[in-house]
Amino acid sequence: MKKYILIFASLILVSCSFDNKSGIWNDASNIPLETKDGNSINTSKSSRRYEDVVTKKQIFDREINVSDLSNIKLDPPTIINDWLERYGSKLNNTSNFSYSGNKILLSKSSKLSRDTSDKNVIFYNNNIISYDHNGKIFIFSLNSKKKIFEYNFYKKNFKNLKKKIYLTVNKNILYVADNLGYIYAINLQTKSITWAKFYGIPFRSNIKIVDGQILLANQDNLVYSINLKNGDKNWEFATNLTFLKSDFENNFAVDVISKNLFFLNTSGELYSINYSNKNINWILNFKSSSLAGDTNLFLSHPITIKNENVFVATKKVLLNINLITGIRNWVFSSNLLLKPIITNNNVYLISKNNLLICLEIKTGEVLWSKNINKSLNKKQIDKIKDFQDFKMVNNKINIYTKNGYLLSFNFTNGNLENINKISKNGISSEVFFYKENMYLVDHRSRLLKFN
C-alpha cells in the first residue's frame, strides 16, 4: 500500500501535454484526482442481512454412474456475434456455444504481445481488442489479420509499471480501467479519447455498463457508479476491506430485470444492490472463523447468474443462492478447478481431484461424476498436463489444456468421446467462440482461428 501511496502522490506533481490534433493525451500524469462528491448509496432504508453460508462438509471425491437422463438437458447452442465484456454477458454466463466444429486451423497471426495470459479480450465488429504488458491498447482486425490501431495512454512516469487493464465496449466507445486508478473512454470510430479520470486507487474488477452508468470496484472493495458520458462519479459504496491480496479480483454480475447488481468482494462478501434506487437488498458472508484452517484470504471463481439463482464457486464449495431473497438453495463441497458451466437444468464442474461432475440445478444432487484420468492412458495423462479452460460447445463438454489438447465429453454421462491436439504451442488464453469460429492464443502469443 505504501508503494501505491508514493506512486500516486508523485503523480499530482507531474505535468503533461495534450495533443489537440489527435484528441489523445501524450501523458496521463496530470489528470486531476476525481474529487466530486457523488451520492453515497443509501443503507438506511435497505434490508441488510448477514449470513455465514459456509458449512463444514466432506469434499466430494467419488464416481457415480448416471441412472436417470430425464434431468439432464441443455440450452440450445448460442451464436456469439459480439463479446463486449469479460465473461461475455451481464450474467457472466454462456451455457452452450455454437461452433462450426471442424477444428481446422484457418489462420495464425504474428505475435500479438509479450504476455497474453489472463487478459481481458473483446470481440467487436470483426476485431479483437486487448492490451499488452505495457498497457498499450490494440485492435487486431480478423479480416485483414493484422493490428489496425495501437494506443498507449501511459507515458514517461508509468513506463516500468506493469499494467492490469479492464475493458468493455458500449455503442462504439471502449471503456478502460486500470490498476493505477485511471478510467478513460476511447471513441473507436474517431480513435480519440473522449474523457479520462484519475480516481487515485487501483481498480480491481470486471466492468458492467447498465442504464448509462459504469459499475466497477477498486482494490479497497469500494464500488463506483460512474457516468458513462463524462466519467464523473454518480455514487460510491464502501464494502469490507481485506489487506491480504490474492489472484482473486472483485467480481460483478448484473440482473437487468430486477435492476440488481451482485458484487463479490475480496473479503468474501456477496452484496445484492439495487443500482436504480441504491438500496442494499442483502449481504452474505462466505468466510467463517469457526472453520478449521480458515484464513482471511478469500478465493473464488467469478459469480454467475442463471434464471433466479446466483452461483458462487469458492475454492471449497459451490453455492446456489436465490437471487431475490439471498436464501441459500443448496451447497456442494468440492475443490473447484475452473469456473462452472451453468445450464438450464444442470451444473458442470471440474474438481482438483480430476472429477468431471454433473449436478441437478434445483437440488445440487450429483447426477453423475467421472474420473477424467480413468478415461485416459498413462501416455495421454503425461501429455495433456494442466487444464486451461472449460466450456460447453455444440452440446459437448470441452476441456482445453495448457499443452494444446482438446478433450470432448458426452454431457449426459461424462464419457470421453474425442481427444485432439489443436495447438502445437499450447494454449495460454481463454478459448473464445465468435461467429461460430474458435479462437485462442498460444504460448507464443499468436492468435489461432479455427472453423
Would you give an account of this structure?
The chain is mainly β and 451 residues long. The protein has a single domain, classed as YVTN repeat-like/Quinoprotein amine dehydrogenase (Methylamine Dehydrogenase, Chain H, 7 Propeller). Helices cover 4% and strands 40% of the residues. It has a 5-stranded mixed beta sheet with strand order 3-16-15-14-13, with no helix packed on it. A hairpin with a 3-residue loop joins strand 22 and strand 23 (317-322). It starts with a helix and ends with a strand. Residues 1-29, 32-38 and 289-295 have low confidence and may be disordered.
The CATH architecture can be given as 7 Propeller
Counting structural domains, the number is 1
Low-confidence runs: 1-29, 32-38, 289-295
User: What is the tally of helical segments?
Assistant: 2
CATH topology annotation: Methylamine Dehydrogenase, Chain H
Radius of gyration: 22 Å
Tell me the structural class. mainly beta
Reading off the top of the CATH hierarchy, the class is best stated as Mainly Beta
Query: Strand tally, please?
Result: 35
Largest sheet: 5 strands, mixed
Q: What attributes does this structure have?
A:
2 helices; 40% strand; five-stranded mixed β-sheet; 4% helix; Methylamine Dehydrogenase, Chain H; 35 strands; mainly beta; 451 residues
In short, what is this structure?
The protein is built from two helices and 35 strands. The protein has helices at residues 2-11, 378-384; strands spanning 18-19, 24-25, 39-40, 105-111, 122-124, 127-131, 136-141, 146-152, 165-170, 173-178, 182-187, 192-198, 208-210, 213-217, 222-227, 233-238, 251-255, 260-264, 269-274, 279-285, 304-306, 309-313, 317-322, 328-333, 341-342, 346-350, 355-360, 366-371, 387-393, 396-401, 405-410, 416-421, 432-434, 437-441, 446-450.
